[in-house]
Design a protein that fits this description.
7-stranded mixed beta sheet; 3-stranded antiparallel beta sheet; binds adenosine-5'-[phenylalaninyl-phosphate]; 2 domains; alpha+beta; 11 helices
Length: about 350
């Protein structure tokens, strides 16, 4: 059992700790250590009074009370001093009105979204209605209906990501991420009767290595026009007018034969490379943006294959039309002077804010 002298020592220690408590949290910790109901050091001494012989109770009780009162009043005093100090400190803090305000970050449209808007606006002015289609697509629409059967070598060019189908895997029900927007040619023709004029912007996926002009996830825009008197001249006219409206008159356009199983004849359109000015070389050697060719391939196109028309019950002797499919990022590169396609998707705000 503690003696009256022990109790005085205990109170001395408590008062010392109280006076050096730096803030209200530290003060509360001292209160708990000495006065908490459960296991405070002074509380324990109070509980001992009941166990003492009657003769010792008054003297010991008085010592406990004195210790307790000293600690309580020291706590109160220090608490008040700390609160007043905190108020005085907050009053003395002055606001520096000369500090510049924090910059408010107002976002702007991503260059890819901006380019899609521009594409659909220009083609919209030529009568092309903007529609969208599924990114997860059946084998049938991505390939079969476009004259690319399962063993056709053109499949290698459109290497896709396949998805396990819980309903089984019959050839034309296989599903995968679409490698181009051309499946929408079939979907639109299945639903509508000619005349048809649509533009389909959307995300595409290909299992291929990336470089300055290739990503495995990228955007395309598909154009489709079907009517009774449409020729290759209309296709060329639409694409040249599109290029002029997008870039002005300066950009060089190359239009040359190509091959796609779903168009006949087929062509490819390219624009002169803005990094090397079409020369294929820069002062560092071969131009990395166009791979040294001087041209940036922008789109594939052609007259819709009669086989594709028959598949959707259009009569090829009555209706013809053209289709084109181009890369949105390639146009965005040309429009913003971005030398590497990967800059669009790295999400470095310093770059995105600068274009
Ligand atoms: C096609 O995708 C055909 N569907 C285009 C087409 C549509 C032809 C309608 C005929 C009629 P190609 O694989 O060449 O074709 O791609 C077309 C354009 O998409 C390319 O010129 C390029 O601009 C863009 N592109 C293709 N692959 C990538 C890629 N990995 N990363 C970025 N852009 C790409």
């Amino acid at each position: 059992m503690a003696t009256a002298t022990d109790l005085k020592g205990l109170a001395d220690r408590a008062v010392k700790e109280i006076s050096s408590a730096a803030d209200e949290a530290a003060l509360e910790a001292v209160r708990v250590r000495y006065l908490s109901r459960k296991d405070g050091l002074i509380t324990a001494a109070t509980k001992e009074i009941a166990t003492l012989p009657a003769a010792e109770k008054p003297g010991y009780g008085k010592a406990v009370n004195e210790a307790k009162q000293r600690v309580e009043s020291a706590l109160e005093e220090r608490g008040r001093a700390l609160r007043e100090g905190a108020i005085a400190k907050s009053l003395s803090e002055t606001a520096d009105l000369t500090l510049p305000p924090r910059r408010v970050r107002v976002g702007h449209m991503h260059p890819i979204a901006r380019t899609i808007r521009e594409i659909t606006r220009i083609l919209g002015s030529m009568g092309f209605e903007s529609v969208e289609g599924p990114e997860v697509e059946y084998d049938y629409y991505s390939f079969e209906a476009l004259n690319i059967p399962r063993d056709h070598p053109a499949r290698d060019k459109f290497n896709s990501f396949w998805i396990a189908n819980p309903l089984g895997d019959p050839t034309d029900r296989r599903v995968g991420l679409r490698p181009h927007t051309s499946p929408m040619q079939i979907r639109v023709m299945e639903k509508r009767k000619p005349p048809v004029r649509v533009v389909v912007p959307g995300r595409c996926y290909r299992f291929e290595a990336t470089d300055a002009t290739h990503e495995s996830i990228f955007f395309q825009y598909e154009g489709l026009a079907i009517d009774e008197q449409i020729s290759m001249a209309d296709l060329k006219g639409v694409l040249y007018s599109f290029a002029r409206q997008l870039f002005g008159g300066e950009r060089k356009v190359r239009f040359r034969p190509d091959y796609f199983p779903f168009t006949e004849p087929s062509a490819e359109i390219a624009f002169d490379c803005f990094v090397c000015d079409g020369s294929g070389t820069t002062n560092k050697g071969r131009c990395a943006t166009c791979g040294g060719s001087g041209w940036i391939e922008a789109a594939g196109c052609g007259m819709v294959h009669p086989e594709a028309l028959r598949r959707v019950d259009y009569d090829p002797s009555k209706y013809q039309g053209f289709a084109f499919g181009g890369g949105v990022e390639r146009l965005a590169m040309l429009l913003t002077g971005t030398p590497d396609i990967r800059l669009f998707h790295e999400n470095d705000m310093r770059y995105l804010e600068s274009v």
